[in-house]
Amino acid sequence: MSIRMIRLAVAGFFVLVLLAVIWPGALLFRRAEPFVLGLPFSLFWPVFLIVLSWAVLLGLDAAENRARGRHDRSAEGEG
Amino acid sequence: MPSWATITLIMAAYLALTLAVGLRAGRGTSASVAGYVAGDRQFGLLVMYFVTGATVFSAFAFLGGPGWAYSRGAAAFYILSYGVLGIVPWYFLGPRAARLGRRFGFVTQAQLLVGRFPSRFLSALVAVLSILAFIPYITLQMRGAGIVIEAVTEGRIPLWAGAAVAYGIVLIYVLVSGVAAVGWTNTLQGIFMLGIAWILGLYLPWVLHGGIGPMFRDILAHRPELLELPGLTASGDPWNWGAYSSAILVSAVGLTMWPHLFMKAFTARDDRILRRTVVLFPTFQLFLLPVFLIGFAGVMVVDQLAQPDFILPHLVLSVDLPVIVVGLFCAGALSASMSTGDALLHATASVAVEDGIRPFRAMGEATQRSLIRILVVVAGGIAYVFALDEDQSLVVLLLSSYGIIAQLAPPIVAAMYWRRATTAGAVAGLLAGSAVTLFLFLNPALRPWEIHEGIVGLLVHLPVLVGVSLLTPPQDAGHTRLFTHPDLGEEPR
Predict the structure, then answer these.
(1) Among the four B352, B440, B449, B453, which has the fewest Cβ within 10 Å?
(2) What is the Cα–Cα distance from B407 to B413, expressed in whole angstroms?
(3) Is A78 a residue whose pLDDT tops 50?
């Protein structure tokens, strides 16, 4: 997958995250029950999204570094 | 020795340590403006991480967060929801701003804007808006420090004196060492407050309720409205979805536009460090969880506290913790306040001089540095006066200033990504957006669905920016290219 596609996918992911924490998406996750790991669902949900976002950012960073490495190598080749 | 005296001693020792670190930090940097304002662009990952984190973990999070969870329940969860969304654009904006900074010697946000949109009026406008937003933000940090000291000394050191001592120390190290002091003290303070937050966040629910699960079950049985989004208002009525959602939006848009955070793009040693800071940022967001747990721990234990921002010190004092833990907690809370306050004071004065005064009056480097120092003291003084007679909640104070700061986002993004944007468009958009925001801030009843005034401001700002830009002649293509394609023609470093 090209770096452009990855960036688009990441942007799409964060748009979904935004929609899931504001009205009307957040209506789906507004309730206190079920409890997850001792937390009410309304609190577990944003915490879960932070962890998930972190994983996505780590993935993006890894992909960006790979792309940058390729770019640098090809620049050296030309020089 | 009575316990309050021991606690005061621990706090004093901690403050002395902070002062020592702050004073030592300035030794390595040059005596230039770039040294004082941008740390000679030499901040590494550890320091950048904590500098960024400190902007999240301020007195606002440490005292306001538990205060909101305690009094308004799920309303506080908006603070969890905006952080990551706000920082993600920085992964791209930050390194680009840094590249432009290295190339043109920018040390402030307005310099970047004016580099692309040459206008001294724009520079002064950004300076005025930034300072307008900064003063309430500094005020809340000072009140936070004062609240903690007053509470744990059982009123022996009143709010005014506590805030004065804590911020006297901040003034000393910011005056002597500039941004280098902010970086290194934030690192020390960051480690402290993160540790304290987790210890208290797990310990208080356990000792008061037998665990986190039982605590929430208890709240669900007696106060179920606290656990359901969007929570409550300050007076205890259900909050409005429009207000909750727009609080998330305006905070996400505004987060990286805060000049004290944005300017740190010019302090990082390289782009890699900026990107990694973004990737690690969610770890800081997770530290808000224990902060909320502390607030919820108070719900079934403490009846109707008149000032919810006092909930954390109140709980700490009421559960018979060992004196040393209380002392360390105070140090943690002071850290939260001071680590943001120092960055804010430094940024306010830098912006006032670099963007508000220098475009109109040429001055030497030495004069600039002394003027920044004088203004650090002036800004501190103004905020201090407000801190004494302000009875707004800490969160409300911050949320209001976000509306103004969010208006900086469209011109900044346009400067670096939109070639067709023009100076007239940027100025007109900023004027329109800020005017609407300020008007609705003063007349809150006119906001549709209680939507945050900053979001309404943006809804006016964007079409004005685009419309006026398209109606005015485009900028020279060679000029815009320098900003929208900063990679081309940059000499290797």
Answers:
(1) B449
(2) 11
(3) no
Residues in chain B with pLDDT < 50?
490-493
Q: Is B73 left (phi over 0), alpha (psi -120 to 50) or beta?
A: left
Shared domain for B121 and B256, answered yes or no, is yes
Long-range CB contacts (within 8 A, 24+) of B381-385: B382/B135, B383/B135, B383/B138, B383/B139, B383/B142, B384/B142, B384/B163, B384/B164, B384/B167
Q: How many CB pairs under 8 A join A and B?
A: 100
Instruction: Collect all residues of chain A within an 8 Å Cβ-Cβ radius of residue B53.
Output: none
What is the count of structural domains for chain B? 2
Asked if B457 and B378 sit in the same domain, the reply is no
The pLDDT of residue A73 is above 70: no
Interface predicted TM-score of the whole assembly (ipTM), two decimals = 0.89
Q: Which of B199, B76, B172, B359 shows the shortest CA–CA distance to A40?
A: B76
**To the nearest whole percent, how much of chain A has pLDDT over 70?**
89
Separation of alpha carbons B224 and B435, rounded Å: 40
The answer to whether B418 and B484 are in contact (CB under 8 A) is yes
Measured between CA atoms, how close is B383 to chain A, in angstroms? 33
Q: What is the pLDDT of residue B492?
A: 42
In this structure, the answer to whether residues B23 and B118 fall within a common structural domain is yes
The verdict on B141 and B118 lying in the same domain is yes
Residues B32, B37, B38, B42, Cα dihedral to 10°: 70
Picking from B432, B457, B458, the residue whose alpha carbon sits closest to that of residue B446 is B457
What per-residue confidence (pLDDT) applies to B261? 82
> Which pLDDT value is given to residue B193?
79
Give pLDDT, residue B423.
96
Pick among A15, A50, A58, A60 to test the B interface (most B CBs inside 10 A): A50
Alpha carbon B394 to its chain's center:
12
pLDDT of residue B33: 67
The pLDDT assigned to B58 comes to: 72
**Which residues of chain B have a CB within 8 Å of the CB of A47?**
80, 286, 289
Q: B212 vs A39: CB contact, 8 Å cut-off? A: yes
Domain boundaries, chain A: 3-78
Residue B204, helix vs strand vs coil: helix
Q: Do B149 and B190 belong together in one domain?
A: yes
